[in-house]
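Lab manual, section 2.4: Encoding a predicted structure.

Procedure: take the sequence of the chain (684 residues), apply the prediction step described in section 2.3, and record the output as structure tokens. A sample record is shown.
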Amino acid sequence: MAYVLGLFHDLGKATKDFQRYLELASQGKPGKTVPHSVWGALILCKYLQECGFPLASLPVLGHHAGLKEPGTAALSLKSDEEKEPEKLQEAASFFNRMLAQTHSSVPEIQPPQRGPAAANRANELYLRLLLSALVDADRLDTEAHFDSNIAGLRKGFPNLNELWGKFENDQNQLIATAADTIVNKVRKEVYDSSLAAASLPPGFFRLTVPTGGGKTRSGLAFALKHSLNNDLRRTVVAIPYTSIIEQTADEYKEIFGSDAVLEHHSALQPPENESEKPNLLKLRLATENWDHPLIVTTTVQLFESLFSNHPGRVRKLHNLARSVILIDEVQTLPLELLRPTLDVLRQLVERYGASVVFSTATQPAFELSERVPEFTGVQITEIVPDYPRHFDVLRRVTYGYRKHPEPWSQIAAELAGKPQVMTVLNTRKDAIALLDALGDDPAALHLSTLLCGAHRRQVLSEVRQRLRSGREVRLISTQVVEAGVDLDFPEVWRAIGPLDRIVQAAGRCNREGRLDHQGRVVIFNPVEGGSPRGTYRSGLGEAEALLANPEYGPESLHRPDIFRVYFRKLFDMSNLDAYGIQDFRDQFNYPEVSSEYRLIKGDTVPVVVPYEDSMDKLHAFLVVPSRLAWQQLQPYLVNLFRYDVTKYHNCLEQVSDNLYKWICKYDEVRGISEDLADPADLVV
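Recorded output:
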């Protein structure tokens, strides 16, 4: 099928108009561009007798402009044929001559047909992956033709055997120097279980590990070894937050080297016009099509690409076939998109030879919910079968629940008497309110997306230094610390929120088990507190109900099975396909699917804040807008909703397309204005 698409896709270039365009271009003369995709698509749909509802020809028609809805495509093809029949004849005549001269024939293929909804959705993904293969092959050939040196940079990546060798050596050194603690014993058991499970055939897997149990390393060990054992091609690690992806990518680069890890997320999208050193250009080229053995990306990048109709975003998808896709903190997948998301993952496993790993301490158990018919009958293998014992062994905290609402002043008064404590709030506005209640407390530090990345890293460094030296530190934070951020407080306070969020916050308390007593986690209910809307607020309500239920209560948070109960309740009360994406997929309506499948609803813009030498970095980027300059600017950006640009226009100065500079006060503790909505809240 892919061969036939490649055969037909450029037939429109055989027309006289396109040949004239090429002749002018070869002479250095400007010429009007001539669309060509339509004629190859027309000849193909006539060959397959499917012009009334063209499916197989959609990738040919859309290999530059994107996948269309079949009805729209049919009207477009008919209109073009009626307007310029001579072009169709020119392309068809050339094709027939080519077949005759080369003694070739078009292979017999079975194009996808319309059928039951489940079959349509399987074919909807199939055509998107065919477009991916077609676009990638087309662009690789073009690249090789125009610049063989650049094409050569795509070779020479380390293979999976080399990566595994480096990882195994690093892990052995880590184990040899690790202290003999209960936490490290559990980490070793989790690691050994991961290696044992890696010999299993591809499928769905679940990596259930308590916070601090070595999930990041063990997950990577499973993925690399599983790939080698099953002749899979690459490992894709998908992470929900940019703050964690940077930390994880840095950890992997220390093990494998910077050239061995492809870091790909929206914050690292390069400008189009650039010239780079060969090793950086090599990574940029691999970013285009994920032609790399180890990729660290965001769930936004992964899943929005899987539902996109745009050739540039789709181009990498065929490389997910025969790969290991490890989804970290899987409980953060948006519930309103859950059915289409799980449907596509099932297709990748069952039809394209991939393995999918659901990794978290708080497993949703998707396959147990009748609200997810797309996942009925799926078998998921536990990588660590003995995980309940690990949760029991690593019981490092006690939970207390204060359900009666309390004002900020009362909460602040209690916190002020504690030498080392972290408090996690549901919104940035709440974090600022509690900071205000603490007054001019020199030990109060703040962490949220009101701070740029460089500022957050500086705060984290200061927090860790204070914790190690025994100095006072009262950290007021939003949810940015709840997954993957390595902090170890003796006491953590968490505003009532979704149950999985509470447990993630508790993972920053007595994390290494060094205390001679249990750490303390206090779940409280601020009177003036708020929360993000949608499923987050639903999760908060379900958490309140479970914590108040005598059958469960706060100590049930030590039991991993509580999350099966919790998530089933959430699934039952949520619309798991809130935007009707499955119906659009059934109709092969690619533009609507692409438009509606968004993990973050609402357009955002990057804003450079005045921190450290950010203005020098901004100037360097504006003078020479290269990928390297863009990467160096990244740590000084804060993302704002586009509607806030109008609201806070007095504080913003536009410096280039889609890039702004903050010209109002940037506080050394609070960051930018506290009244701005937080796009990060909408990830979950």
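Check your result against the sample. Residues 2-111 form one domain.
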